């Protein structure tokens, strides 16, 4: 990689160090996935190969995999689809055999990804994953045993895909392909490595759609104040700098949501990636915003605030009991999808209110915005879109993609309501906040630029119309 060097540093493991100085927005790495699998809720909605979302897809009756076109189906066949068809054929011929118990397209996402990685490696007789960090020695004996069991399942299905359920009768080339990757310990470490190195692939709206293994991108470590950010164009990952990065500086990404309380994020980082993150002054500031609860009558912040997480709920550590009870009631309404009631209690309570950037307030605003859009309640959608953007500005650093995407959504609603000056301001914020974002999303970027042009023309027309009325109105005749 010409843009960075890979080195091991004490306490950091393998690191990507910048080979030169980078300006904000420069591409550090573009890489096609070694393997990708759609998440379960996206299967049947998107092409299994290109990840394109279409109403009509070509569906394979044997595997259930769907494709956008014959071209995508052929590309998938060369990479993994042909192997999975062989597995389906083997399952139909040998009912009750181990391979018939569960096919790889029915496995959990990380294991499905490990299988696709393995079968591609067998075909090419390569094992680039051997250099990936698996944290094998940090796993418990029980976890290692589970990984070895999963590895054995992968090897059983790999044998079926190569047509070598009986090694003695197998074709020499197929046998050699299998034996090139058939070490149970190595495959078990591959399964463990997927837990640590798989990247969550997102679409243009930053919705999670797939898991992918990117051999070179896996070198980039997490940092609480990352200097790079990743985006995805189909199966390809693009990593760009978000600020100036100097030669020799480590290139880092955010593995976890930074608009989340650090105690939650740090717990997940330790659980899934086996390293501990440390707070920075900026992280502490965000924590304060994300947990802020205001108390009457002066509406001052409650000491320590009250944290919240969509998975863990209300976080009780250090919280004042009465403020804690307030947030639990709001959370209960949120969990019951009573979002309107939750919003009223959260923002107009006589004793407590959520701070402007509280994590639960942001979650409610997003839910209510989406609900209003789905029901075509455009005035309500506009109000909550403004609330979302306001929260984003408080929580996220400048140049963060979710902020620019929020401005783009708000621009659509402002334009729909005929607020042309507001539309122009939102479009400008979207385009200038993270200009690199639109390079990887050309269609979405062009839509924002078209909204900006339309709003300018509409504002000019309104200005001319107003000037004409002023000259021809009743007062004009008194001149």
Automatic annotation (TrEMBL):
Domain (SET) ranges: 2-256
This protein's name: SET domain-containing protein
Cross-referenced Pfam families: SET
Bilayer-spanning residue ranges: none
InterPro entries to which the protein is assigned, alphabetical: H3K4_H4K5_MeTrfase, SET_dom, SET_dom_sf, TPR-like_helical_dom_sf
Upper taxonomic lineage: Eukaryota, Sar, Alveolata, Dinophyceae, Suessiales
């Amino acid at each position: 990689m010409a843009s960075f060097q890979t080195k091991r540093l004490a306490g950091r493991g393998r690191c990507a160090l910048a080979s030169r100085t980078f300006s904000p927005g420069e591409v550090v790495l573009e890489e096609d996935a070694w393997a990708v699998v759609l998440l379960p809720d996206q299967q049947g909605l998107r092409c299994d190969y290109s990840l394109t979302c279409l109403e009509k897809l070509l569906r394979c009756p044997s595997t259930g995999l769907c494709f956008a076109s014959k071209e995508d189906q052929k590309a998938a066949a060369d990479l993994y689809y042909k192997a999975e068809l062989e597995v389906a054929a083997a399952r139909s011929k040998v009912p009750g055999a181990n391979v018939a118990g569960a096919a790889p397209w029915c496995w959990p996402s990380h294991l499905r990804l490990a299988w696709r990685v393995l079968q591609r490696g067998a075909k090419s007789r390569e094992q680039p994953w051997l250099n990936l960090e698996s944290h094998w020695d940090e796993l418990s004996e029980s976890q290692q045993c589970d990984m070895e069991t999963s590895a054995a399942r992968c090897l059983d299905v790999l044998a079926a895909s190569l047509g070598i359920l009986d090694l003695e009768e197998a074709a020499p080339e197929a046998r050699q392909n299998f034996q090139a990757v058939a070490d149970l310990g190595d495959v078990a470490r591959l399964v463990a490595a997927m837990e640590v190195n798989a990247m969550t692939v997102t679409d243009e709206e930053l919705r999670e759609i797939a898991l992918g293994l990117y051999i070179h991108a896996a070198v980039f470590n997490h940092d609480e104040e990352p200097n790079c950010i990743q985006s995805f164009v189909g199966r390809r990952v693009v990593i760009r700098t978000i600020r100036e990065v100097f030669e020799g500086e480590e290139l880092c990404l955010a593995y976890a949501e930074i608009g989340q309380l650090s105690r939650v994020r740090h717990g997940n980082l330790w659980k899934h990636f086996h390293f501990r993150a440390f707070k920075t002054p900026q992280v502490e500031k965000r924590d304060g915003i994300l947990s802020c609860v205001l108390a009457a009558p002066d509406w001052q912040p409650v000491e320590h605030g009250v944290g919240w997480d969509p998975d863990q709920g209300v976080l009780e550590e250090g919280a004042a009991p009465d403020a804690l009870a307030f947030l639990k009631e709001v959370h209960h309404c949120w969990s019951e999808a009573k979002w309107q009631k939750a919003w009223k209690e959260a923002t107009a309570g006589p004793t407590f209110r959520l701070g402007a950037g509280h994590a639960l307030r942001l979650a409610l605003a997003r839910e209510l915005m989406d609900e209003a859009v789905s029901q075509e309640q455009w005035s309500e959608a506009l109000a909550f879109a403004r609330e979302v953007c306001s929260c984003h500005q408080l929580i996220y650093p400048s140049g963060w993609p979710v902020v620019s995407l929020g401005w783009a959504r708000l621009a659509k609603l402002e334009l729909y309501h005929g607020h042309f000056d507001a539309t122009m301001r939102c479009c400008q914020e979207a385009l200038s906040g993270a200009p690199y974002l639109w390079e990887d999303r050309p269609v979405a970027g062009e839509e924002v630029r078209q909204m900006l042009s339309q709003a300018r023309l509409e504002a000019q027309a309104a200005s001319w119309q107003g000037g004409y009325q002023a000259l021809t109105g009743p007062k004009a005749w008194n001149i």
